[in-house]
Amino acid sequence: MTSTAARTSPASPDDTYVLLHTTGRIGHITLNRPQALNALTHPMVRRIDEALTAWEHDPAVETVVISGAGERGLCAGGDIRAIHEDARTGGRASADFWRDEYRLNARIARYPKPYVALMDGIVMGGGVGISAHGSVRIVTERSRIAMPETGIGFVPDVGGTYLLALAPGELGTHLALTGAPVGAADALLCGLADHHVPSAALGALVADLAELPVRDALARHVRPAPPGVLAGRREWIDACYAADTVEEIVRRLLGHGSPEAKEAAETLLAKSPTSLKVTLAALRRARHLGPLERVLDQEYRISCAALTGPDLVEGIRAQVVDKDRAPRWRPATLAEVTDADVQRFFAPLGELPELGLAGPEPTPEVAW
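Below the sequence we write its predicted structure tokens.
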């Protein structure tokens, strides 16, 4: 059966990138851009939101399922080639995209019906935003979940700093700064997922979700995840990443003695120094900001500020456009990134409208 959302969405060439249908009691969203690993465009974000609007008020749809077409994964993130061109030319299309994308992330987190995300294969950046905020997050033995933004001169967004700030100990700091991908068990440990289902069983799970309540369908297919690695590394991760500065984190990692800690330090030293410092500040702030909406408001400021800096353009050039893997960061070292450089990313946007998901900021009390 074709869903109400599919029938009423305006026709456009981008409609084929998001397929919508209903089967039994589920509304199924399929990201259908496998040639780009289902990377999100602005029209794709709008179409997902339209589907959620239609199905929220459709009593025949009891559960929403989101998955990705192709064999490689759910979603590799946003369309960073488009972001590169926008940042390079001083445009505003990326800010408009992020505004709708972050609102969609917040909506998913508050959606009143079960939202089941099939996080099979690669799930990165914006792919985390459309899955890890859902109420039922399924990983498989093929899952590779990451927020790799520091490697392209950017900062974890789509609520990523909110999710990683909630991870046990300093695991989230490690993942945010290094951009390291995690498998099923580590995603469960970090609170990025809820259940492990073997990849081969996902089709049967979806078929059961069409006929059964979510809990009953899950009971048929959830299995223990293959072993992860992060639990055995908690000692050095918690000790090293608890430092107040990126410089001190790197110093502790290099001095720890563990080969994995040294490898993490070397990974950090290859990332954008500005992105590392802004990411650490964003994570620390996220721990105290409160609800997701307030963290998304902060991330929107950071993302818009990144558009006007040199590292986002350079990072995407080096990793995606020219693929020389030799970015020339500015500033080039952690020591050259000042506190003022970092604070610029958290400043009010001025002429550009704020995201405003959490409402107006409270007025400071005045002592008379």
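Residues 4-346 form a domain with the 2-enoyl-CoA Hydratase; Chain A, domain 1 fold (CATH 3.90.226.10).
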